[in-house]
Design a protein that fits this description.
about 150 residues; alpha/beta; 4-stranded mixed β-sheet; 3 helices; 4 strands; globular
Length: about 150
């Protein structure tokens, strides 16, 4: 945590970085069995290459026609410990389809969501998260599988 604070201070941010924390956990138990639930995917990888960090925004895609590739090159992750060549590791639509066929989960949602990695809790909590929730509620989604990169 100290390295993150030093990084932001070195880049001229006036306020020290604060890790997200919540007094109330925004999760709730399932209202019906998994086998009857509709599931979507929310990932922090992005649908387009070379999108400038300040230009990235929420992307809503068609889960019936998922992307063949998502782009992770502009994001920060430990490239020495892992890679992102396996789309299924951070966008597991094929695994969800398999679970659907076996009856372990109900339907797959119509949409998936790419929520950009941002260093602003305010933008995430005031813009992207409410948009994902509203869209998911509109589509009667029961479960959002959160897959951060």
């Amino acid at each position: 945590m100290e390295r993150s604070r030093n990084y932001y201070a070195a880049h001229g941010y006036d306020t020290p970085y604060e890790w997200a924390h919540f007094d109330d956990i925004p999760f709730s138990p399932l209202s019906k069995p998994l086998a009857q639930s509709t599931t979507t995917i929310v990932t922090t990888s992005m649908p387009t290459p070379k999108t400038a960090r300040d230009q990235r925004g929420l992307h809503i895609g068609d889960l019936k026609h998922p992307p063949q590739k998502l782009f992770t090159d502009g994001l920060a992750w430990d490239r020495d410990a892992t890679h992102t060549n396996d789309l299924g590791s951070y966008f597991p639509v094929e695994e969800l389809r398999k679970r659907r066929r076996t009856g372990e989960i109900g339907q797959l949602a119509q949409k998936y969501y790419c929520v950009p990695t941002r260093y602003s809790q305010r933008l995430t909590t005031e813009q992207e998260a409410p948009a994902v929730v509203a869209s998911s509620l509109n589509d009667r989604v029961d479960i959002a599988l959160l897959v951060p990169l």
